[in-house]
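Bench notes, afternoon.
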Amino acid sequence: MNKFKLLILFFLILSYNSSYSQWAIMKSDADSLVRVGIQYIYNVEFDRAHECFVKIINFYPKHPAGYFLDAMIDWWKITLFRDTKIYDQSFENKIQNVINICDNLLYTNPKDINALFFKAGALGYRARFYTQKQDWFKAIKDGVSAYNLMIECQIIAPGNHDIMLGTGIYNYFSVAIPEQFPFTKPLLTFFPKGDRQLGIYQLRASSKLARYTAIEARVILLQIYYTFEKDNDLAHSIAEELFTKFPNNAYFHRYLARILVRKGLYEEFEQMWRDILIKCIDKKPGYDRLTAREAMYYIGLALMRNGELNEALKYFKKSEEGSLILDKDEESGFLINTIIYIANIYERLNNKKEAINYYKKALKFKDYENSHSKARESIKRLQ
């Protein structure tokens, strides 16, 4: 991952979704709509979610909740529909509107809990958006502002389990990121010291007891266990729970399938990636070309492991074809590994000419996980 992205991720996680916690003080009519609407967002039922949030806006036009949640619909569209930028401007406009509404409230009352929470959330999401666009200055500016607002929220309501999502994220990542990426340490000098284990404890508490952020706490724990802790069993449990609860969400589906790959459950992950590929073919929301490329790669991997070399070759060739279209900036690990696997298969099929051609092709791309040394050694062996 790009170093600058990791830095912005750190700023983001300080504020990510901390805004949800203030909803406990909303009236019961809006409270129920918020909770139902959140469920709809996670299950990719965006029209239903929008209906809920429009009602909240109509009931409470000066409250930032409905506007913020409606912006989250666009955020999840950006997250799931990775092949398009058509939702970018709408997202930015909605986030700016939330910030404006919050600023109006804060002008009257600088300690307005609603305004503080939602402005922190809006800035945090916009920081993440700018990170994806590699607009580092704007991302850092928003991330730092969101962090400062979160601290104010913690002072006002330190025992709230929804706020505990934000404190847990900070405590964990303020330690985990510098440990894994030492270059960030000088940049974090002026931030309070975190506590990695306390962070996990707070996130677990939030995942069980929070009124609004329980699902998001599970999402963060999934990312922690999969990416940082490398605890495949806990990651598996959370991913399975999330996908079972939200079967329309391609993001959760991919996570679960990747965990099965990491655990070496070949039969299970082949079937799951085949299910994913079918949804890609059926053009289900979020099952995009990137997902299809990934599915064909892992199906090919499973077939190769089972000795079905000709079938594996077909899927790897399709994955290669997709990568050559999708990898616009630089070649991906998927493309490079696919080229190496295709060469391996040709070698096992005693087609030395094609094997050498593909090994040479690997040398034209960047060196990824010793791909160049693997290719050179294989060429030398075959010639």
